[in-house]
Specification:
Elements: H1 6-12, E1 17-20, E2 26-29, H2 31-47, E3 53-58, H3 62-65, E4 96-98, E5 101-104, E6 118-122, E7 129-138, H4 146-149, E8 150-151, E9 157-158, H5 161-174, E10 183-189, H6 196-205, E11 209-210, E12 213-214, H7 220-249
Parallel strand pairs: 7-10
Antiparallel strand pairs: 1-2, 3-6, 4-5, 6-7, 8-9, 11-12
Helix pairs in contact: 1-7, 2-7
């Protein structure tokens, strides 16, 4: 009921996306969950193509890879349901069922300790290095994010500072562990902005290698092509969700009785 713009509604409302189960039951899920899951799947596929990078685990628990920081220990595991309503069901946590099998397990985990999204091991340095990648996507149209998204005297200039803020929030989470810089906040914003830490990771994984220790790329053409494929597909994931914003909640609800429209009704084009 709050007076918010359509794009903000599309990015934060848990009923801006929906899916239909095999039993014809409609389930709703948050935009952030779907976008997050798409990037996780994309990174799993693309990073596995790098010759000296091994993708070993999805949703790894941070404490299984890095010891806790004794000066800043991690918080206790979250309760399974912190809702005041005992009958509360979070659709975002429910698995997605397709043709009788689970194709996406959401964020529901038996282990309630803090986790990242992807664990990889690089083998192009002196010894194998485990890296945990923690994905986050911040909504540019949320009112609380406007100060980091919109700049300029007239508030008409877009800034990607929101993505760096998302990475900073992940850094505070990772500070509970002794990870030596190998827990990475892979942060983006919903307009396509990317954090400095995320770009540094991409450049590191797709690097040519030092002169005395070249990477195991089949060719320079292969290296460039794989990096371009990853960046292109990452852009397309964000683009698809932007299109869905327009498709689902980017235009006024013409059927709402008594609703005041900020723009005139869209006319049907005739050819």
């Amino acid at each position: 009921m709050d007076p918010v713009n359509w794009f903000e509604h599309g990015q934060v409302c848990k009923k801006s996306r929906k899916r239909r189960q095999d039993d014809n039951q409609v389930k709703y899920f948050a935009r952030s969950w779907a976008l997050h899951k798409s990037i996780q799947i994309l990174m799993t596929e693309c990073l596995a193509k790098i010759p000296d990078v091994n993708v070993t685990e999805q949703n790894p628990v941070l404490l299984d890879t890095f010891p806790e920081n004794p000066e800043n220990p991690p918080p206790p595991p979250k309760d399974e349901d912190n809702s005041d309503d005992p009958n509360h069901v979070d659709e975002e946590m429910e698995p997605r069922i397709h043709q009788g099998r689970v194709v996406a397990d959401g964020t529901l985990k038996k282990d309630k300790r803090e986790a990242a999204d992807l664990k990889i091991i690089t083998t192009f340095e002196e010894q194998p290095v485990p890296i945990l990648i923690d994905i986050t996507v911040a909504a540019t149209h949320a009112v609380s994010h406007h100060p980091r998204t919109i700049i300029g005297a007239n508030g008409d200039i877009y800034s990607s500072k929101l993505a760096d803020h998302g990475a900073h929030e992940k850094d505070k989470k990772h500070a509970h562990y002794l990870h030596d810089g190998n827990a990475i906040g892979f942060a983006l914003d919903s307009m396509g902005g990317i954090s400095e830490s995320a770009m540094d990771l991409i450049d590191h994984l797709y690097a040519r290698g030092e002169q005395e220790k070249r990477r195991r790329w089949d060719s320079e053409t292969m290296r460039v092509a794989l990096k371009k494929e990853f960046l292109d597909r990452l852009s397309m994931v964000l683009c698809i969700h932007r299109v869905n914003d327009f498709k689902f909640l980017g235009i006024p609800n013409m059927r709402a009785k008594g609703a005041q429209l900020a723009h005139p009704p869209h006319r049907t084009l005739r050819h």
